[in-house]
Amino acid sequence: MSQQSTFERLQDEGISVFLTHSTLDIASVIDSVKSPKAGAVVLFAGTTRDNFDGKPVAHLEYSSYPPRALKTMLSIAQSVKQKHALIAITMGHRLGVVPIAEESILIAVSAPHRQPAWAAGEEALERCKEKVEIWKLEEFGGDQGGVWRANRDGATGVPLDIAQPSYNPL
User: CA 90 to CA 109: how far, in whole Å?
Assistant: First the structure.
């Protein structure tokens, strides 16, 4: 899959969710939630690590159905914003190939106080991983091939036969 600069976004009052094939910009995501009313800004940056379950990971590749994924992300952000009385929330996910040590997801929240900001950031991440229609291909080093997974921690994947064309869940 070639790297594209596709950028899709949905917004609501104090809410922004987006999908992109470009490198995620931490500074712009933090800036998007800053406010004079905020006493706390919390950022979560999920990065590609170099191993999974004892296997070396070459890179991750994320795939999605953007119209549905964006609607789900927006619904999560709206719910979390209301529940934790946030000032703002931004959730962004990268699609396509994400090399080792680069960010695949950014979630930033702002709130009048730190405790609701911490809780909201964690809840937004867990709900995103549980609900959003994004899948990841973990490509392992050498001849180990890859595994498609739902975008959940430790979820069982579907091994790929490296002699066969890659399976894409879409």
Answer: 7
Q: Are 44 and 123 in contact (CB under 8 A)?
A: no
* 3 state SS of 170: coil
d(CA 150, CA 159): 13
* Predicted TM-score of the model (pTM): 0.85
As a whole number of angstroms, the distance between CA 37 and CA 168 comes to 44
Written as tens digits, the pLDDT of the chain (170 aa) is 334 455 799 999 999 999 999 999 999 999 999 999 999 999 999 999 999 888 899 999 999 999 999 999 999 999 999 999 999 999 999 999 999 999 999 999 999 999 999 999 999 999 999 999 999 999 887 777 888 877 665 555 545 444 444 545 44
